[in-house]
Design brief:
This protein has 16 helices and 12 strands. The protein is of the alpha/beta class and about 375 residues long. Helix 11 crosses helix 16 (about 370-380).
Length: about 375
């Protein structure tokens, strides 16, 4: 199936649409049945049948069908937040005494959640590459978790190589694909078992929803949907699912525009004397660029630069001087955003990720590239 068709038309010819140009939002929390037997039968598959909002809902189901098709997965399950998807997915795969391998830098709250699981006897080890994994793996290791590009530094991993190594050791692979979206990278086709997204970012695309999704085989999604999804209470609302469906309609064209502007910023910053390094796999100078061309079809507008300073006040001054780039967390919307992990996140988490003090993350939005470059230039002059 073509991605453009999936984003715009998949599931939107259902009879219940009644010819509407946009799918309706089913606000009701419950669904009724003709007989008690019908209800009892539906409850057996409450994660797929419409019984109660906490299981699923027609609007949520439509978003899930589109996302699964985009990722070339059998099933998808949407959550009320990205962390809802991450915590439920990890929880579904481990038990007390199990061990998790974390490859490369990952989203800070993911590391915090793994630390939280320690009180239940689930341990984890951060590794920088598969060679380190050979030493860190043990008989209780069940799961390999990673992002590619990785968090903040945007390092790449050879996904088919990672998944082949994990299969050899009997591990389930879980990958966060939020940076690329399914438009630019499809990890399941490269052997990843479960793929996660924060829908709050590019897929939603307008900074007006919080949501998450996990995509994968029915064999792995079904137990997660029937247990962690139902018990953690992190069900996506139909209103947010409606926003996901709207966001998907424009996702291909927005990602092309984010890529264009992101590369323009990266190339400008790479040539500036006040910048030590630029982390963007679309740059020819990026160490993973050739790998990126093999396993990705494009690049998003999320990048980081390393200022030529180790002074926190200087980093803060740079951010405070920006005019078009707003200071804020998250990313993936129309507006361009800037943040500095050294000024905002827990120091131990920053050190675990290997993020230098002078690192600034930029989410390049859809404003004029010329205006954004001018803004970066004037802010760099201040340091």
């Amino acid at each position: 199936m073509d991605d453009d068709w999936i984003c715009g038309r998949l599931g939107e010819d259902e009879p219940w649409l009644l010819g509407a140009v946009h799918p309706p939002i089913f606000e009701n929390s419950i669904f009724t049945f003709e007989t008690v037997g019908d209800l009892a039968e539906a409850i057996k598959d409450e994660d797929e049948k419409f019984v109660y909002w906490r299981g699923t809902n027609p609007t949520v189901d439509l978003a899930q069908r589109k996302l699964a098709a985009l990722e070339r997965a059998e099933r998808a399950k949407c959550f009320a937040s990205g962390m809802g998807a991450i915590s439920a997915t990890i929880s579904s795969l481990v038990s007390a005494g199990d061990h998790v391998l974390v490859l490369g830098a990952v989203y800070g709250p993911t590391t915090q959640f793994l630390r939280y699981l320690e009180k239940y006897g689930v341990t984890h080890t951060h590794i920088s590459d598969l060679a380190a994994g050979d030493s860190a793996i043990n008989a209780s290791t069940r799961l390999l978790y990673f992002e590619s590009p990785s968090y903040m530094r945007y390092e790449l991993f050879d996904i088919p190589q990672v998944t082949a190594w994990a299969r050899e050791h009997g591990l389930v692979t879980v990958m966060d694909n939020t940076w690329s979206t399914p438009i630019f990278q499809k990890p399941i086709t490269m052997g990843v078992d479960l793929v996660l997204h924060s829908l709050s970012k590019y897929i939603g695309g307008h900074s007006d929803l919080v949501g998450g999704v996990v995509c994968g085989s029915a064999e792995l999604i079904r137990p997660l949907a029937r247990t962690e999804y139902m018990l953690y209470g992190a069900a996506m609302s139909p209103h947010d699912a409606g926003k996901v469906v709207k966001g998907l309609r424009t996702l291909p064209v927005r990602m092309a525009a984010h890529q264009e502007r992101g590369l323009a910023m990266a190339r400008f910053l790479e040539s500036h004397p006040a910048v030590r390094a630029v982390n963007h796999p679309g740059l020819e100078s990026h160490p993973g660029h050739e790998l990126a061309k093999r396993q990705m079809s494009g690049f998003s507008g999320l990048l980081s630069l390393e200022l030529d300073t180790d002074s926190r006040p200087q980093v803060a001054k740079f951010l405070d001087t920006l005019r078009h780039f707003r200071i804020g967390v998250s990313w993936g919307g129309f507006e361009s955003l800037a943040s500095a992990p050294a000024l905002t996140i827990e120091e131990s988490v920053r050190e675990t990720m290997g993020v230098p003090v002078g690192l600034v993350r930029l989410s390049v939005g859809l404003e004029s590239a010329e205006a954004l470059i001018e803004d970066l230039g004037q802010a760099l002059e201040t340091i």
